[in-house]
Amino acid sequence: MLDQVAELVREVAHTVVLPRFKHLSADEVHQKSPGDLVTIADQESEKALTRGLTALLPGSVVVGEEGVAADPRVQDRLGDSGAVWVVDPVDGTNNFAQGRTPFCVMVALVRDGETTAAWILDVVADRLTVAETGSGAYRDGVRVKTRTDDPGATALTGVIAHRYFPDDLRAQVLAQAAGLGNHHIGRHCAGYEYPAVATDEQQFAMFWRILPWDHVPGSLIVREAGGVVRHLDGAEYRPVGHKRGLLVAANEDIWTSVHSTLFPDGRPPAHT
Q1: Which DSSP string do the residues of 117-154 spell out, in sequence order?
Q2: Lowest mean pLDDT, pick from 21-30, 177-186, 220-229
Q3: What CATH code would you report for 153-262?
Q4: CATH label, 2-144, candidates 3.40.50.300, 3.30.540.10, 3.40.640.10, 2.60.40.10
Q5: pLDDT tens across 201-259, in order?
Q6: CA dihedral angle for residue 162, residue 167, residue 171, residue 172, rounded to 10 degrees
Q7: Domain locations in the chain as residue ranges
Q8: How many helices (H) and strands (E) does the chain have?
Q9: What is the pLDDT of residues 81-111, one digit of tens each?
């Protein structure tokens, strides 16, 4: 199944998504909400992935970004028993629409509310990261593991994607972030940020808006590589959860170092 889905993801990326990169006409890009774009590539990619994934696993259902945009009730399927595919047909759509990289195609398989497998393809780099519960995480067939040490907060590099943070959380986090070695707003592509933690390109990433297609695939990859994915109150992230705010880290000690640096009194704002 891992190889079959990987082949499908690559095929859709190379035949549906990549040919439209830097070749979108104005009528092929639309705004779902202020600053949130959708393109014809997103729509056609999701349709192709849905056909292929449900054929590979008869009886399964798909929760995809564009399907949920059309009918928000589709997201409720994540809590169903049985097999549910979570699909982000183009992660990093704003990058894609503006002719920039990175952008990815992402798929995860959720069974009875728990993620069991994940695939993230960085389309332009043609770099595939996969994970299966209990079997580890792999990039292009080579096993990847997060770093196991904690060099200390001032030596850490990571992402604080604060665009959607509530004002009080943003103010608190950015005021304390000077205690971290290096942080940036990110590349507007969760499919890039999660594998970057898994491969030690960066040691942490922090998000607020938690849409399942953005975070379900990457969370399994980071965990299978040895990392930690938790809400800001310390609760483990699950696909069916509705909390906002996530802190992703290469290991337990780094999670604690980042969290204690950003929240020195141990308590993030109450609405998290």
Answers
A1: EEEEEETTTTEEEEEETTTEEEETTEEE----S---GG
A2: 21-30
A3: 3.40.190.80
A4: 3.30.540.10
A5: 999 999 999 999 999 999 999 999 999 999 999 999 999 987 899 999 999 999 999 99
A6: -90
A7: 2-144, 153-262
A8: 8, 14
A9: 899 999 999 999 999 999 999 999 999 999 9
Position of tokens 């393109």?
A: 39
| Structure tokens given for 249 | 């880290």
Cα–Cα distance measured from residue 247 to residue 7, given in angstroms and rounded to the nearest whole number? 31
Amino acid 143 reads: R
Copy the structure tokens of residue 114. Answer: 């728990």
The pTM assigned to this predicted structure is 0.95
Residue type, 49: L
Residue with the two structure tokens 């995860």: 108
Residue with tokens 């993620």: 115
Structure tokens that stand for 219 in this block? 């969370």
